[in-house]
Write a structure and sequence with these properties.
Residues 336-412 form the Reductase C-terminal domain. By secondary structure, the protein is α/β, with parallel strands linked by helices. The chain has helices spanning 17-28, 120-123, 134-145, 158-169, 185-188, 190-202, 306-320, 391-399; strands spanning 9-13, 34-39, 76-79, 83-87, 92-95, 100-102, 105-108, 112-114, 128-129, 150-154, 173-178, 206-209, 213-218, 222-227, 232-234, 237-240, 244-246, 258-259, 262-264, 270-272, 278-284, 289-293, 299-303, 335-340, 343-349, 356-363, 368-375, 378-385, 421-422, 437-439.
Length: 451
């Protein structure tokens, strides 16, 4: 490694939001060496959240989602090329075109991809979609604009719910199936997910919970689906919104701690090897990472959040070009938002890291509220519905490990804040979509059992 950390060769694998922000931050931090960004898609880095919102509604096209560059990172872009391996000893990134790129430090920001419908033949039917890439967004938007009879959305997580919301806004009939008891239950727990279910049904969604799709029907083109309760749904478009798969397969032989839940790293974004030893020259950022967070019991967190990708990329970039004593931890409190069925849902902290909740402001009936989550007497998260202005206050409570239930001043009703109810967070295995925030140690209220 060069003596001067501001020089040498850095390779970023993943032309993603995290990859782009890291490249920019490296230059802002004074890195003067060679910088290469590898991306398996042919496009420059683009923004994914609009794909399930504005693009489906025809308010924007998939081609206009390119991310603005804050500054030119003066990088060599290797787009449309997939990384196939990482040689930690030789310090090389292997590519599918047979080339390999030497590095002094490497940043892995390969993100996630949509979990496909498991039956390959059914998934190949014309009219069956996932939603993750620009092509996915453009193809689905085109089908929705053509006015299908009915759309089937499999999975009631955030992406599935946003797609269903867009369908109703376009006047398209939509059926949503969810294996769990309600939409968004994996992210928000039982109480708020009931509100989500009411909102979907009030907006004309045919919501089926506690069921799975057992087969997709069609002869070349999708015509409908069979459900586990014996019913069937006739539809001409199907979207599998089954959560995400972390792009780690290319690291199988690398010796890094990479698995289905991402690549484990320390709070400074340095990757662990498979023996739990931290590496000096391999860094991780964005959706593909798992990192420990002191506010959540040092559990490893996997986050599929826009803000986390940006903040973690900046911390990783800083630590790649600064010596140990100047390195910073990535301790940002997770923040997430979603707009669906006329509601603006914002979340701060980790709602799944909870045992109880309290409605601190507003009410479920008014559909405008702030719900605070606690674990073992401490505030760990808050979710607001059409009350985003309160979120900063709750973020402060989380960061300062404030007692739960929150003290007066956090609530607009003196009495109700004392009435706590179980947060009712389901085991992720009962959902048809993955959670967008996953605690990848044991869940806090489930002790590990030795069999």
């Amino acid at each position: 490694m060069p003596d001067d950390l501001k020089d040498g060769r850095i390779v970023i694998v993943g032309a993603s939001l995290a990859g782009l922000r890291a490249a920019e931050a490296l230059r802002e931090e004074g890195f003067t060496g060679s910088l290469t960004v590898v991306g398996d898609e042919p496009h420059a880095p683009y923004d994914r959240p609009p794909l399930s919102k504005q693009v489906l509604l025809g308010q924007a096209t998939a081609q206009t989602t390119e991310l603005p560059m804050r500054r030119d990172p003066d990088a060599e872009w290797r787009l449309g090329v997939r990384a196939t391996g990482l040689d930690l000893l030789e310090k090389r990134v292997l590519l599918d075109d047979g080339e390999s790129l030497p590095y002094d430090r490497v940043l892995i920001a390969t993100g996630t991809r949509a979990r496909p419908w498991p039956n390959k033949e059914e998934a190949a039917l014309e009219g069956v979609f996932t939603l993750r890439t620009r092509e996915d967004g453009a193809g689905l938007a085109e089908r929705l604009a053509a006015g299908p009879e009915r759309v089937l959305v499999i999975g009631g997580g955030f992406t599935g719910s946003e797609i269903a919301s867009a369908c109703r806004e376009l006047g398209v009939q939509v059926t949503v199936t969810e294996r769990g008891p309600a939409p968004l239950v994996g992210a928000l727990g039982g109480t708020l997910s009931k509100l989500a279910a009411v909102m979907q049904r009030n907006h004309g969604v045919d919501l089926r919970t506690g069921v799975t799709v057992t087969a997709l029907n069609g002869n070349g083109a999708f015509t409908g689906a069979e459900l586990s309760d014996g019913s069937r749904v006739d539809a001409d478009v199907c979207v599998a919104a089954l959560g995400a798969i972390r792009n780690v397969e290319w690291l199988a032989e690398s010796g890094l701690a990479a698995g289905p839940r991402g690549i484990a790293c320390d709070a400074g974004c340095r990757a662990f090897n498979m023996y739990g030893i931290v590496t000096d020259d391999v860094f991780v950022a964005g959706d593909v990472s798992r990192f420990p967070h002191p506010l959540f019991g040092y559990q490893l967190l996997s986050l599929e959040h826009w803000g986390n990708a940006v903040e973690q990329a900046e911390v990783a970039a800083h630590n790649m070009v600064n010596p140990g004593p100047l390195q910073r931890p990535h301790l940002a409190v997770p923040v997430f938002w979603s707009t669906q069925f006329g509601l603006n849902i914002k979340s701060v902290g980790v709602p799944t890291y909870s045992d109880h909740i309290v409605i601190a402001q507003g009410s479920l009936e008014a559909r405008r509220l702030a719900m605070v989550y606690g674990y073992k007497g401490r505030v760990t998260a808050a979710v607001t519905v059409d009350m985003a202005k309160s979120l900063d206050y709750y973020r402060h409570l989380i960061e300062s490990a404030a007692p739960f239930p929150p003290p007066p001043g956090a609530a607009d009703r003196a009495i109700a804040a004392d009435v706590t109810i179980p947060s009712d967070v389901p085991d992720p295995s009962v959902l048809s979509h993955g959670p967008t925030v996953a605690l990848t140690g044991h869940l806090p209220d489930r002790r590990l059992t030795v069999v």
